Amino acid sequence: MASDAGKTFDSNTMFVLPNNAKRMPDASWVRQDRWDALTPQQQDDYPPLCPDLIVELRSPTDSLEQLQAKMQEYRENGARLGWLINPQDCQVEVYRQAQPVEVLQAPSTLSGEDVLPGFVLNLQRVFT
User: Fold this and answer.
1) Which of 2, 41, 70, 76 has its CA 20 to 30 A from that of 100?
2) Any idea where the domains of the chain sit in the sequence?
3) pLDDT score, position 81
4) For residue 19, what are the contacts with CB-CB under 8 A and spacing of at least 6?
């Protein structure tokens, strides 16, 4: 998820969402101008923002309902694009602002769309 247009984070980064919830998505991306608007202390501590792009990968022990609620929370707090990757059911739920959730059956790739233009996530090994 590298791009000069923003900053990529792994599951070790905790964000404080606008609703004050503390969340650690599996992977995320924040537009560079939004990241640069934070103070150095905010960047080093728990960034007080919701990433633009969220990726959650369901593990065998994760509750699908809890992950869906988390994805909805991200969207309500400003995430522009979210992918809930569910290998157990060979599905991806795509969350976008002001749109119904789209369910894709075993897609081979996902596009960063207008949030991260040109980015493509290859999922071929996830659903095999």
Assistant:
1) 2
2) 6-122
3) 98
4) 73, 76, 77
pLDDT single digits (tens) 27-46 = 999 999 999 999 999 999 99
Q: Rounded to an integer, what distance in angstroms lies between the CA atom of residue 34 and that of residue 28? A: 13
CATH architecture of the domain with residue range 6-122: Alpha-Beta Complex (3.90)
Residue type at position 60: P
What's this model's pTM, rounded to 2 decimal places?
0.93
d(CA 30, CA 60): 28
The backbone torsions φ and ψ at residue 75, rounded to the nearest 5 degrees and listed phi first, read -60, -45
Output the CA angle 70-56-66, nearest 5 degrees: 35
| Under 8 Å between Cβ of 29 and 116 | yes
